[in-house]
Amino acid sequence: MPRTTPEEVRVGLIGLGLMGTSIAACLLSAGHPVSAVERDASRRKSARRRVRALLAASRKEGLLKDDPSTLVRQLAAQEGYASLEGCQLVIESATENLQLKRGVIRDVEDVVSSRAIIGTNTSGLPVTDLQSGARHPERILGIHWAEPAHITRFMEVVCGEQTSLTCARRVLSLARHWGKEPSLLRRDLRGFIANRIMYAMLREAFYLVESGYATIEDVDRSLRNDMGYWITFAGPFRFMDLTGIPAYAAVMQGLFPELNCSVKVPGLMRKVVASGARGVSNAKGFYRYTPAAALRWEKQFLKFSYEIRRLARKYSEDAGGSNDYY
Q1: What string of H, E and C letters represents the secondary structure of the chain?
Q2: Domain 6-185: CATH class, spelled out
């Protein structure tokens, strides 16, 4: 990627679904012109309206100073890939399917320069597998966003086996410009950092419920009021520093052998999925919702996302001390 100021970087975006729309809002907020590829005609037609609504909400919450109507003019949505020509960074946010994403990357390579960086927004597929067969695998890396992408400070930049560290560092620099606090994975690993830790937690949560130790409500309540209390302020290693390391070693010795290590999808999860539940999007999940209640939860989650971001910004990663580690 040529050395330009962040705002001068033209960004391509594949897909304008839920995640793609909020990624577009994030990029536009940072001053980037965005060329989006979306095959669904209705999504293309409504793209600016949907992105403008996200930008307007960000401005109302005090996270955006610019006029949303001005910013959204920098978004162009087309059906074909030719519009990506001249983009210095392309982010694909297609469905989580290896062959589909490989095909998207090949289509992108047909139109962009050999120096353009290609980022894949995958949460579980190995980046190395997506590099296979590419003309320039060194410029392909993972850019793992969290929803809502225009609000959260989370981002993981993931190197495949052939990814150039120079490309990864360039994306890390851009990520900070986007208002993120990015993490770098120097080696490819399925699930990356956050998902590996979250799914270990989910496995244990299902075990506790299915074994009759606690209800779904009790598990949620305990985690909200313990982990939810501190984890925005400090990650697990900083938290152990703050609360006394030796006690954790003692608990690990007795507890680790008793933790669930099943490699199967929990039965409760299979049952809920088989029922057609998708969560609040269709008002059916682990909890029961009326359509009105599901909508209230969606709105509360968005409001909470803004509020927790404001809180997190009051406390830097450094907090005035050294970032050296053991």
Answers
A1: CCCCCHHHCCEEEECCCHHHHHHHHHHHHCCCCEEEECCCHHHHHHHHHHHHHHHHHHHHCCCCCCCHHHHHHHEEEECCHHHHCCCCEEEECCCCCHHHHHHHHHHHHCCCCCCCEEEECCCCCCHHHHHCCCCCHHHEEEEECCCCCCCCCCCEEEECCCCCHHHHHHHHHHHHHCCCCCEEECCCCCCCCHHHHHHHHHHHHHHHHHCCCCCHHHHHHHHHHCHHHHCCCCCHHHHHHHHCHHHHHHHHHHHHHHCCCCCCCCHHHHHHHHCCCCEHHHCECCCECCHHHHHHHHHHHHHHHHHHHHHHHCCCCCCCCCCCCC
A2: alpha beta
